[in-house]
Every structure is written in structure tokens, then in C-alpha cells.
Amino acid sequence: MGCANGYPGGVDDDATPERIRALPSWLLARAALRAQRTVAAHLEDAGMRRQHYTVLATLEERGSASQAALGRALGLDRSDLHAIVTALEEDALVTRERDPEDRRRNAVRLTAKGRRALARLQTRIDAAQTELLAGLSATDRRELLRLLDLLVAAG
Description:
By secondary structure, the chain is mainly alpha-helical. It is 62% helix and 11% strand. It has a three-stranded antiparallel sheet. Helix 2 packs across helix 6 and helix 3 (50-62) crosses helix 6 (112-132). The protein is elongated, with a radius of gyration of 19 Å. The two termini are 37 Å apart.
């Protein structure tokens, strides 16, 4: 079955009952799915996923961190984070070393190569945001971000 949004097996938005389309939760879920797919498409050509970007960006902004702290900051499961850090380490984008203050934990650090990769990924992320919000004016974009911040802050 084809669908209006171009994803085989996806939801045909035109066929969705108005009662459902009027639900903020449904609209947010549809927008989130579109955002995830847009970002994934922009990162795919670089051989990266959103989680790779978020780990690199977090390390750049906050400095080195234990894997446990990274997992908490990003809401990632330990085993998922381990796989992500391992992939980034294999590409020499991060290093993982024993924390000198607590030998039981690993400190993850961004490398110079990781900083360069993050700069390239940021260009792709920015392009994805532009594509995602292309139908909105600059004023509408600011208002959307303001409202989304309120929703997220409300917990």
C-alpha cells in the first residue's frame, strides 16, 4: 500500500480521520518521525547516525565524560552507548581511557579528527533542520522552538 508521505507501509496522512489528526500527540509524533527520517537521510551519506552526532556534540560542548555520564545525558542505554563509542573509537573520532580518578570507569574524549568530523556533521544537521522547517517563516520557526521548549521543560 502506498501512502501520501512516500514511505511504503507508512501512514497515509490524507486517510487519517480528522479526529486523530486534531490530536496534538498525533501531530507531534508525525512531526518527530519526519524529523528523524530527515536527519537520518542527511547523516547516512557520511556513514553516521543521529546518536553518533549527539555523542560527538556532547563531548565537544561538555568535555570528556564517563560513559555512564554520557548515557545519562543522552538517555542512551549502556549497551547501545558502548556500541556507539566503540564505532567512534574505531574511526579515531574519540578515545576511551581509564579515568585516573576512578579506575573503574572509562573517560571518553573527543579527538581532533572527531572535532573535524563533528564540523562536517553539523553542516548536514543544519541542512536537515532547514529542510524540515522549510515551510515555516522565520517567525514561525522561533515560535515553534519556543513552544517545543515549553513542552519539553514541562516534563
